[in-house]
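Course assignment 3, question 2. Fill in each field.
Student: A.L.
Task: Predict the tertiary structure for the chain below.
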Amino acid sequence: MISRNVALCAATAALLAACSTLDRYTGQVRRNNTATGALMGAVGGAALGYATNTNKSEEGRTNALIGAGIGALAGAGIGRYMDRQEAELQHHLAGSGVGVIRQGENIVLQMPGDVTFALDSAAIQPRFDPVLDDVAAVLNRYPATYVDIVGHASADGSDAHNQVLSERRALAVGDYLLSHKVLRARLFVAGRGESEPIASNATQQGRAQNRRVEIILRPHTTT
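Answer field:
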């Protein structure tokens, strides 16, 4: 664990060697790497954090949405709301390569890394912009959902590299959604590195599946 943390520190230091810009998540100055997640990530930790400037917890995010005038869902209305949102996402994302998966009341959008990003890059490919435009448009029509953006990597490369890359990719997607008016208080951004595979890393196909960004949509409730 110590050696991994040292490696992560080294990777983070390397990412910081660039000019500064304003971070839209924190309002603070950060280095100008493409969607650099290292500035928000704790060394060795998966969570980058809540995107709102003032609330740093799940309860804070709930309160922020209520404060923004977004009412909480309740009872049978939860299922109906998520059903409509899922149907719109299925319609707009058909043929895009993005998987739309229903898990109870939650909706998971699986964005394959080879579709969203170039190899070993956190820069969103221009051809994927229209897909994220559609995602942002649907999210803005359904504001009563939390938006968790989680980056994942395959086992290719070192743990440290994969952790930082997963963070940077998640932040790139989060930055894009913010630039398309998705409410900041809804967002949580995390990088899981190679710790949560959905397929075997022993095959090329499995590793390709593991390289992904997931957007998890959860209903905004008070419980």
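Instructor remarks: Strands lie at 20-22, 29-31, 47-50, 99-103, 106-112, 145-152, 187-191, 212-219. The first strand starts at residue 20 and ends at 22.
Grade: pending
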